[in-house]
Every structure is written in C-alpha cells, then in structure tokens.
Amino acid sequence: MKLTSTEDRILNGARELFFKQGIRSITMDDIAEHLAISKKTIYTHYKDKDLIVKSMFHILIEQEHERMHQIRKISENPIDEIMRLMEHLGSFISQFNPAVFYDLQKFYPLVWAEFRVFREKEVMGFVEDNLRKGVKLELYRKEIKIKIIARLRIEMIYLGFDTDVFPINQYNHAQVQVALLDHFLHGIVTLKGNKMISKYTLNTK
C-alpha cells in the first residue's frame, strides 16, 4: 500500500494512541490534537476513524508477514526461530493496551476477520513448519501431533493477551509470553533440543 507522507503520519499517530488507550476511546479530535494538525487534514485522507483502523491494521498485518519471513531466513534452527518470533512478539506486545483486541472483536468485525485469517493461515502455518523442522532435526519429540500442538501454541499466545487471566496491573505481558513459551518448549523438546534451549535468551523487559 503506497501512502503519502501525511497518510503515513496519520496512521502512525493513530496507532500510538490506539496501542496506549485502546481503539474505542480515541476520537478524530484526539488524533488531530496528538499530531498537531487539523481534523480537516485528516478527513482529506481518511473519511472516518473506521477507515483509519482498517488501513492501519492492514499495513500492520503486511509488516508482520514480512517480519515472520525475515525471522525464518536468519534463524539458525527451529528453536532459535521460535524464540526470535517470541522476542519480536514480546516487543510488539509491550507497545499496546490489550483492550485493542477486545475493541477489534466488538466494534470492528471486518478488521478482526482479516486479523483472524492472518492468524489461521500465516501464524499457524509458521508454527506448523517450525514443528516439522524441529522433529526432522530431532530437536522436538517425533510423536507430537503437529496440528494439535501448533493450535495449542497459538492459543497460548492469545491466552497471554487475556486481561481476565493476566490483569495488566499484575503482570508484564512480555514476561507472560516468555513463561508460556518456556513451558511449551520444555514439553516438546528432546534431550538434544533441551540442551539447545539454554543457548538462547529472550528479552523479558
């Protein structure tokens, strides 16, 4: 998606506000004030907040797709690969209020549907491929059920976002994700894979 500099600035500014406060509570006035521009300027490029949300998340999904491919290219092995993915996710999580997911599901179903397609096809496919490679290299146990374990891994990621389970005022969500990944990996690795885990560390700040 080719953006003008103003469009890019609007989307980045909106994202900063959405990630900090959620989507529903932010108005076009808030975005204009945050960027120190007029609402008229915003409306010249985006007819309403819905279009800003749709455009922002479409670009975000494209960026995440590209980042996953970059991770795959530079990773040394499946364990390194999944840890790099989780480090990236932890950094991503630390930027925004988990209420964003609630707002998307309730108020922006079409955007949420696009996000779910990305989750089911891209992220699920990434994890399944990771598991297959790990089994082939004898880093993961050969008897694991690829599709079931991949689904479990994805659901664990989103469990970490659930503020009913992990309230924001009690948990660091990046650390939650690292703890869940550690638990997951130790459940599927072989002795060979277990020795390799200690080679890699994740940023939990």
Quickly list its features:
single chain, 205 residues, mainly alpha, Tetracycline Repressor, domain 2
CATH class: Mainly Alpha
Shape: elongated
- How many helices? The count is 10
* CA radius of gyration: 19 Å
**Total domain modules:** 1
Strand pairing plus helix content: what structural class?
Answer: mainly alpha
Identify low-pLDDT runs: none
Please provide the ordered H/E string of secondary-structure elements. HHHHHHHHHH
Total strand segments: 0
Quickly give the CATH architecture. Answer: Orthogonal Bundle
Write out the CATH superfamily name. Answer: Tetracycline Repressor, domain 2
Can you summarize the main beta sheet?
none
- If you average the pLDDT, what whole number results? 89
Describe the structure.
The chain contains 10 helices and no strands. With 205 residues, the protein is mainly alpha-helical. It has one domain (5-197): Tetracycline Repressor, domain 2, CATH 1.10.357.10. The model has no long low-confidence stretch (mean pLDDT 89).
Topology at a glance:
Elements lengths: L4 H17 L6 H8 L3 H7 L3 H26 L3 H16 L5 H9 L1 H28 L9 H14 L13 H16 L2 H7 L8
Helix pairs in contact: 1-2, 1-4, 4-7, 5-7, 5-9, 6-7, 7-8
Outline:
The chain is mostly helical and 205 residues long.
